[in-house]
Amino acid sequence: MNIIGPDYLVFGVDDVAASTEYLTAFGLKPVDVTSEGGLFEALDGTGLIIRHKNDPSLPPALPTSNMLRQQVYGVKAAEDLDAIEAELSKDRRVTRLADGSIELKDDHGFELRFQVTKRRELVMPAEKINAPGAPAQRKPNEIGVWEEMPALPRTLSHVVLFVPDIEVATSFYCGRLGFVITDTLTGAGPFLRPKANDDHHTLFFIRTPDYMKGCEHLAFHMGGPTELMVAGTRFVKKGYQSFWGPGRHKFGSNWFWYFNSPLGCHFEYDADMDKHDDTWVARETPLNAESSQIFLFEMREKWSPAGGPPPEGKK
Amino acid sequence: MSERGTAGGEAGTWICRALDIGEGEARGFGPFDDSKRKVIVVRHNGALHAWLDACPHYSTGTPMAWKTDAYLNGDRTHLTCHSHNALFQMDTGKCVLGPCLGQNLKRIEIAVDEEGDVYIAAPRKGGLA
User: Distance between CA atoms of A81 and A85, rounded to whole angstroms?
Assistant: First the structure.
């Protein structure tokens, strides 16, 4: 089962116009978006699909206030869809759609869809840095930052779910779909990586009461920490509300910056996540502020020391 | 002056003009004095209510808007924390759906003077016209 990761996340929102404004400002590109909603994509074509919550074409809502309606996973080939269908049709209904994709529910009732991935291959440089002792990554006269530098989400990185039963969730995704646990924050839950993706995680669970079941956050990979800082700074300057960050997580090593959203969950810019293979031995540590991040900063308005003596009369 | 009155600023601190907040509208002001959190002022059924902009889902409270002054849900029926879509009644501050179900926003007592200016007041129950 060569599952790559989420291609799309589908939301049923209560304000399509506000969500459209938000997703566009976040840096996603509207594709055939109307007042009814549509697709907002990152540079590789992954992204979000939104519709009004009363749109009958949406999968059913969760029995909570959460707006997530479906997670659409990309797989490598049609054979992988056949394998998933064969495994999961043993104990649940699996619906084969006209385009070959399949739909089903996980053991918590989250709606899933699997399709041959529609993501486009990205060929772009990572953020380049210069450091003593290592070959310069930027050529002479190649500058690192400029005011209008691009800082757009490259790909949908991961989704984090509030689930009432970690064991049930882990058994389903690892036992039935071939995900592996890369690390565990005890008291929250495990980080999961699917077979055909070497990112530290595309899925993470947080144990919560049943009435919170849903999406806690979703994240998009940026081209590096500088792009993350630039995109987040631009977002704050437009009035959007920071929730946590910028900082850098310990597990996964990814930089992070989380924001509130009108989609009822957090949106994260992330960058520079660890890669793993099957030789990795999962770590485990209790969830707390110390284990969650190596450092944490808070945005402040731009300022600079002017130098020289204080202005006349102000000592 | 009680803790309730000082949570979002000193009593007597000017917040806004009453006319700035239309029926069914919410806006954020501050933060005032040493508080890190803004004060949300909302008008519901004609009465003004003020709440600390701090969702009780987390012990430290977290800011609730998704954008400047965007404190309401799409249907404009509830104050909303746009972290996890927790819905709060505008006039009681009670969470009726979401992670902090049954918990309350912290009320900021306010007073409106003859000029129509809204101030943080010594604590008393309920919203003021």
Answer: 6
Task: Write out chain A residues lying below 8 Å of B73, CB-based.
Answer: 14-15
pTM: 0.94
Spans of all domains in chain A:
3-120+153-296
Closest alpha carbon within chain A to B57: A212
CA gap B74, B70 in Å, rounded: 10
Per-run averaged pLDDT (10 residues), chain B, 129 residues: 51 92 97 91 97 93 96 96 96 94 95 94 55
In angstroms, the Cα distances linking A298 to A22, A38, A60, A250 are 21, 33, 38, 18
Q: Please give the domain boundaries of chain B with CATH numbers for all domains.
A: 3-120 (2.102.10.10)
Q: What is the pLDDT of residues A149-177, one digit of tens each?
A: 999 999 999 999 999 999 999 999 999 99
ipTM rounded to 2 decimals: 0.91
How many contacts does A have with B, using Cβ atoms within 8 A? 66
Look at the alpha carbons of A76, A79, A81, A83 in this order and tell me if their dihedral is positive or negative: negative
Give the H/E segment covering residue B28.
Answer: strand B26-29
Do A68 and A50 contact (CB within 8 A), yes or no?
no
Fold of the A3-120+153-296 domain: 2,3-Dihydroxybiphenyl 1,2-Dioxygenase; domain 1 (3.10.180)
A232: which 2 tokens?
């987040």
Min distance A62 CA to chain B CA atoms (Å):
12
**Residue B4 pLDDT:** 41
Cβ A92 vs Cβ A176: under 8 Å: no
CA distance A265 to chain B (A): 5
3-state secondary structure at position A233 = helix
